Amino acid sequence: MAVTDLTPAERRVWEAFPLGEGIDFRESADEGSAAGSSWGPERTVRAEVLRALLIDGPAHDGEIAGLKLTGARITGQLDLTYGTVQHAVRLRSCHFEQIPTLYGAELRVLVLSDSVLPGLTAGNLRVDGALRLSCSRITGPVRLQGAKISGAVFINGAHLGSPAAPDTADSDTPEEAALQLNHADIGTDLWAVGLVAHGQVRLNGATVGGQVNLDDAELHAPGGTALHAETLSVGTDLRAMRLIAHGRVNLSGSRIPHQLNLAYSRLSHPEGQALRASSCVIGELWLRDAAPVVGAVNLRRSQLDLLHVPPQVWPSHVRIDGLSYRSLAPHLPAKERLPLLEREEGGYLPYAYEQLAAAYRTAGDDAAARTVQLAKLRRHRNTLPRYARFWGHLQDATVGYGFRPMRAAGWLMLLLFTGALAFTLNHPQALKPDEAPDFIPVFYTLDLLLPIISFGQEEAFSPRGWYQWLAYLLIATGWILATTIAAGVTRSLNRQ
Question: Does the predicted model carry a pTM greater than 0.85?
Answer without folding.
Answer: no
